[in-house]
Amino acid sequence: MSDTPPAIGRRAILAAFGAVALAHGLAACASSEEEGALDALSEELRLHPELARFLHLSALLTGFDRLEPSFAQLYLHSLQSDAQRAADLERLYQQAGYRDWHAPASLEELESRGIFRDGAFRILTDRIITNWYTGLYEAESGMRVATYVRALGWRLDGINAPTTRGGPPGFWSRPPVVREIP
């Protein structure tokens, strides 16, 4: 009989990593008690204030308060990879009140701060809205897909994104089933 403890199996390690990843993902996506308030964001987003600001701004612009942080990171990086857009984003944050933690609580408040009267800001906000609704963003190599199924455009119609595969023979003769995307 050996005094050494049994080795941890591959399945146990994978299950543990899976649980940690799930907990991490849920923490990043958790909704706050005070929707739209920067000080009520999850701890994960508090560690990344730049991403938190971008998510808050995106929620105001799109009208959806539960946005995926991983997509936000892609869209934000895309904007920041262009020097002019990055500078415009910083100016927008300043004018909107994000720099002094007086973030707007609504689209109307954002508008009252003059954001949509500035041509550069309108172009920037249009780009942000387009990213979220189409699931596409600009990269050095051209347009890239962040998401197809979870693009906000599909939520407008209350339908699921069409798939590239059909179903059993005659599937098209039945009306589509609409499911809520979490």
Structural overview:
- By secondary structure, the protein is mainly alpha-helical.
- It has a domain at 48-161.
- 51% of the residues lie in helices and 4% in strands.
- The protein is built from 8 helices and 2 strands.
- It has helices at residues 10-29, 43-46, 49-62, 69-80, 83-96, 107-112, 119-134, 152-157, and strands at residues 136-139, 142-145.
- The protein has a two-stranded antiparallel ribbon.
- A hairpin with a 2-residue loop joins strand 1 and strand 2.
For the structure shown, list the relevant keywords.
182 residues, mainly alpha, two-stranded antiparallel sheet, elongated
Layout: helices, strands, pairs:
Layout (H helix, E strand, L loop, with lengths): L9 H20 L13 H4 L2 H14 L6 H12 L2 H14 L10 H6 L6 H16 L1 E4 L2 E4 L6 H6 L25
Helix pairs in contact: 3-4, 4-7
What would you say about this model in short?
The protein has 182 residues and is mainly alpha-helical. It is built from eight helices and two strands; from the N terminus they run αααααααββα.
